[in-house]
Structure formats: C-alpha cells, structure tokens
Amino acid sequence: MQVRRTFLLAGLAALFAAGASAQTAWPTRTISLVVPFAAGGPTDVVARSLAASMSKTLGQTVLVENKLGAGGTVAAAFVARAQPDGYTFFIHHNGMATSTALYRKLPYNPLTDFEYISQAVDVPMTLLARKDFPANNLPELIAYVRANASKINLANAGLGAVSQLCGMMFERAIGVKLTAVPFQGTAPAMNALLGGQVDLLCDQTTQTIPQIKAGSVKFYGVTTKNRIKALPDAPTLAEQGLKDFEVLVWHGIYAPKGTPKPILEKMNMAVRAALRDPDVVKRMADLGAEVASDSKLTPEGLQTWLKAEIDKWGPIIKANGAFAD
Ligand code: MLT
C-alpha cells in the first residue's frame, strides 16, 4: 500500500514538474494573436506593431490572425473556447464591453471567460465623408445630414465595432437615423469610402490619418475631449458644437480562461516591452495612438476598466435600441 502511494506521489510530482518546466520554457512555438477585424484596419495596425516587437522579446513569432465576423464577437467566442495553453491571445477594443449590451445572446462572458493581460494604446476617432460629399465642415454636415437623412448611409464594422458606436453617437447627437452599411472591419469600409460607395464613416486615426493628410476624404473633426498631437489643427467635434461628444478607443489583450499565471506574467512583460519599443512608440504616435497609462498596463487595470466600460455603455446602448440576437 505504502509502495503504491509512493509511486503515485512520485508520478504526480513528475507530472507537475513537466507542466511547470513547459511553462518556464514557454514559448516554444508560434503564438497566435487573434484580431477580430479585417487585415490592414486600425486594430490590425496596432496588433501587428505590437506583435513584431513582442516576437523579439519572446524569441518566437507572434502571428496575427484575423478572425472576422459579427462586430468582433466571432473572434471573442473563438478565443474563449481556445486551449488555455499560452499559444492563443486576443486583442480587442471597446467592443469587448459594448457587445454585452448589443447582443442578446453573446456566446461568451467577457468578465468570466478570459484572463486579462494588459491594456495597450488609446486611439482617437475621426468623422469622415467621401471626398465629393457636399458638406465642407461640421455645421454644413449637420445641416445636410438632417435635411437628407433618408438618402445618406454610414459605414461601420458591425454591431460591436467602435465605428458603429461612434456613428450611433453622431446620429444621437444630431437626432437622425441613417442607413448602416456594415463591413467586416473598417479597412474594407475605408475602401468603400475612398471609392465613393458609402457616404460617412467614423474611424480610428490609426487608419484615417494617412487619408486625411492625403486629402482623399472629407474630415470634420476628432472625437476626443481635447485636440490631438498628431492632428494639432483639427478641431474636436465637441468644440464645434457637439457638446460632450467623446469616443476614445482603448485596446485590451486577453487569453483564454485558465492560461497559466507564469505565461500571463511573461506576456504582460512582453506587451509592456513593446509599448516602450521606440519603433512602436513612434509608429503609434504618428498615427494618433497613445500608450495607455501605467495603471492600465496590468491584468487588474484591464479587468477594472472593462467592467467600468460595460457599466458605462450598457444604458446608453439600450436607450438607443441597437441590438442583435
Ligand atoms: C477595425 O479594426 O476594423 C476596427 O477597429 C473596426 C471598428 O471597431 O470600427
């Protein structure tokens, strides 16, 4: 009996040691960073900048994988069900919070089905129209949209996308309802705007600054409380009369629930190192993005923020009646 017990304990100890050493050795192969929107768009731009730097820190490739659909919820559900083995991570923005109010049946719970690693960067948004849209400034845009609401469409990346959230805030601010044209990310939405197939788009500076600077779109202002360094002459929507209009995009990095703590800690260090990497900092700053404050670069910082965002946006979304099943 005693012999059997000794064998059992030795076996368990060996198993535990193997698990612990696998975690210490992590990573030993390519890591997947899932992006919930189309390649080339704003979330993808942030993810690829971080992934390139994190690959150097971790000594293994961090590969960006775009999993599209349903405003980011297809990717979130995929990650919630993925193996918690340290080889699947997820980057998502405000949609991780807003989807809880937007979808009646969300196939995951953002507050219980994930591990939290860190926030990353905050990104302003910009309100744009196709280049030949008749309105040349915000007052003209408001007047024109109010007078022609039934003929105007507004592109977005689906329910749960920040482009949808920002568009909804704009509609609410000026008291109109426009025709929504959903895409699987704002990269294809921007192509449609550039091609003149859609009228309006509210999108992140990480994609829009090059187009604004090239003059290939009409630009009406930024969605932040204050003007931004990357576009110092651009007025905010709030200072032009849309009082209290504020949408700022924040990004969080997550893992499937149950991913071992030592891996989460190493991943947090790699994210922080990427956010201090001069190449990443410069690229993000040129595109209007700012590294999140220190207190948000922790698992607790992300988790607390996510909960606060769920509480903030839920009532606003419900008041607007924008739901999907
Ligand atoms: C994207 O990466 O395509 C955007 O973040 C989608 C959005 O939320 O508007």
TrEMBL record:
List the InterPro entries: BUG, Bug_dom1
The signal sequence is 1-22
Q: Which domain of life is it from?
A: Bacteria
Per UniProt, the keywords (alphabetical) are:
Signal
Family of the protein in this entry:
Belongs to the UPF0065 (bug) family.
Query: What's the protein here called?
Result: Tripartite tricarboxylate transporter substrate-binding protein
Q: Tell me the organism.
A: Caenimonas terrae
